[in-house]
Amino acid sequence: MKKLGLASVMLALMRREFAVALRQKGEVLTPLVFFVVVASLFPLGVGPESALLLRMAPGVLWVSALLAAMLSLQRLFATDYTDGSLEQMALSSTPLGLLVVAKALSHFLLSGLPLVMMAPVLGLQFGLDGRALGILMLTLLLGTPTLSLIGSIGAALTLGVRGAGVLLSLLILPLYIPVLIFGAGAVEADAAGLGFGGHLSLLAALFVLSVFFAPLATTTALRISLE
Amino acid sequence: MNTQVIHWFKFASPQNFYNLAGRMWPWFATLATLLTAVGLWISFFVAPTDAQQGEGYRIIFVHVPTSQMSMFIYIVMAAWAGFGLAFNTRLSGMMASALAPTGALFAFLSLVTGALWGKPMWGAWWVWDARLTSELILLFLYLGFLALQASIDDPRRADKACAVLALVGVVNVPIIYFSVKWWNTLHQGASVSLTRSPTMASTMLWGMLIMVVACWMYAITIALLRVRNIILERERHTEWVKHALE
Q1: Is the whole model's pTM more than 0.90, yes or no?
Q2: How many Å lie between the alpha carbon of A189 and the closest alpha carbon of chain B?
Q3: Which of A7, B155, B207, B212 is disulfide-compatible with B43, CB 3.0–4.6 A?
Q4: Which one of A153, A163, A182 has the shortest CB-CB distance to B168?
Q5: Sequence-distant (≥ 6) Cβ neighbours of residue B221 within 8 angstroms
Q6: Which of A157, A175, A182 has its CB closest to that of B172?
Q7: Which residues of A touch B152 (CB under 8 A)?
Q8: Cβ(A65)–Cβ(A119) below 8 Å
Q9: What is the pLDDT of residues A145-172, one digit of tens each?
Q10: Could you tell me if B207 and B59 are in contact, meaning their C-beta atoms sit under 8 angstroms apart?
Q11: How close does chain B come to A145, measured CA to CA in Å?
């Protein structure tokens, strides 16, 4: 058998994730639809006054995106756990941390990236202008990978646990707060004339931190769940 | 000279620690009772009335110790959790889970006393100040820990999973605190300054210090009592537990 390099193993795993996701299109589309529905509920709840909606828009879109990204997190390891392939991954010679990164990356590409693409459409409904939409997309693009990485810790901890869905949200949402603050804050800071560079740098810093630490925690949690 | 070596790891065994905790907790309980009595006496009768806040400020003697303890217990809990992961000792996980409810209680009390203090002083039960918000998030972290603990049946697995969560939490607490602080300054929240505290009379300071130590003693007492129960529950199949309960 040919010995595969680390990068090609990761690519193969990502290709598999994509194949599985494309065969169950509902699982990819549901979070996206959820995102649209939740974001549309807010104007109905607070009223159609455009000044208020404009002020709320970045926060509302970010919170909705956060919830939508979390919705699909449970799927990250659950199916592989039930059919035993997760155990094979843990036993393989490839470091489990790299496989976790590959899985989190495909989670971002399958659930985070569609949200980034959809956000400007929803932003228009709230009356954001072109510049704000651009900043919003940029922050989502930087922030959603972090959400996938932090989320993978929660997904690994709640594997095969009773009521995993609700538990996952209780564990993970408090950890999402910094991403939410800097993500939504960037748009507001720019609107207030403060510049958004600082927020973007902090989002990038959070991303780098989570790339380093999250796979470590996720691997430990997965090994505990597989014991 | 005969130097006696204490075998600290002896107490890593639940059975030995059960006995040690049984001998220790009455002392801590006595100290907690005495110090609470003295502390409350100072805070109600000795400490002078505050010039600006009147009698209402006296809740500080409960509020400050509980907030402090809620933060400190999380760190201690995470330390035990990390210890348990590193050395694979059963007792560490038990200690972490014995501390969690007390920490959550202190976080809750700190929020409640803060609200009771805030209403007469600022005219609002709640302001989205950085400290209040991060205390609330700390309570959420405790609740997540307790929920994860409750939903995993195998206690060893629950301990380890919770240990990972506690360590992730402790890394995140400073990040959350600073992000909330920045969020707060960007939004120009309520115009009250919590950081600029007037200088305190020394009796006030003493009362508060004594209450802080009293809360420490209380937390240790309760953690020891709770860990004794956890040990009994988990070791119920063993011979020594049957003897201990006779």
Answers
A1: no
A2: 8
A3: B207
A4: A153
A5: B25, B28, B29, B32
A6: A175
A7: 161
A8: yes
A9: 999 999 999 999 998 888 888 899 899 9
A10: no
A11: 17
Cβ pair A170:B164 closer than 8 A:
no
Q: What are phi and psi of B126, to 5 degrees?
A: -145, 135
Nearest C-alpha of chain A: how many angstroms from B106? 18
What is the crossing angle of helices A164-191 and A50-71, to 10°?
A: 140
Asked if residues A115 and A69 have their Cβ atoms less than 8 Å apart, the reply is yes
Residue where the block lists tokens 């100040």? B129
Domain definitions of chain A by residue range: 6-226
Can you state the angle between helices A75-82 and A96-107, rounded to 10 degrees?
130
Q: What is the ipTM of this complex?
A: 0.85
- Supply angle C-alpha B98, B100, B104, rounded to 5: 140
CA B123/CA A88 separation, integer angstroms: 60
| Residue contact B140–A170, C-beta within 8 A | yes
pLDDT digits (tens, 9 = 90+) for A78-90: 888 888 888 888 8
CA–CA gap between residue A168 and residue A159 (Å, rounded): 10
Among B140, B142, B167, B179, the strongest candidate for a mutation testing the A interface, having the largest count of A CBs within 10 A, is B179
Which tokens sit at A6?
A: 């680390």
| Per-position b or e across A120-149, b if 16+ CB within 10 A of its CB | bebbeebebeeebbebbbbbbbbbbbbbbb
Inter-axis angle of helices A50-71 and A25-46, nearest 10 = 150
